[in-house]
Write a structure and sequence with these properties.
This protein is an alpha/beta fold and 144 residues long. Helices cover 26% and strands 28% of the residues.
């Protein structure tokens, strides 16, 4: 068997092992908080927060509202003063609409998903989370 063929089989086996571990490994992390920040752009009435958020029970089931703006912001029935932080925990899966003055359409829907079962659902969840994290990465050009 040629060296190239051995390399290809080794690479395929490694990829299969990584996918198997991602599908079966337990979910967890250091924090269960998902930050939502009100930035200074919120004062200009340009949307500074997304219209939808996704949380997962047991993984990121606490919404951390952080106001970095100079003005207070409303999220549901909570008034977040400038420089303050508010933690909003979720205990049940479902979709929760909240009024929010910094969101497009003045509303945010928080989708709380159940913890994915081991196997394909967990692998699908991990891949979706990876793609969302990659999509939300800030793009920075080289500094002069």
């Amino acid at each position: 068997m040629s060296l190239l063929l051995r390399f290809q089989w080794g690479l395929a086996g490694s990829l299969l092992l990584v996918l198997l571990l991602a599908a079966l490994a337990p979910l967890g992390g250091a924090t269960r908080e998902r930050p939502l920040e009100f930035t200074r752009a919120a004062a200009t009435r340009a949307p500074s927060v997304p219209a939808e958020l996704r949380l997962t029970l047991g993984v990121s089931d606490v919404l951390l509202l952080r106001n970095r703006d100079r003005a207070p912001h409303v999220f549901g029935q909570v008034l977040v003063a400038p420089g303050h932080v508010f933690r909003l925990p979720f205990e049940q899966a479902g979709s929760y609409p909240f009024a929010c003055d910094a969101a497009p359409g003045a509303r945010i829907v928080v989708h709380v998903l159940p913890e994915p079962d081991p196997g394909w659902p967990r692998l699908r969840w991990r891949l979706q989370a990876l793609f969302e994290d990659l999509r939300d990465l800030p793009l920075q050009g080289p500094e002069d």
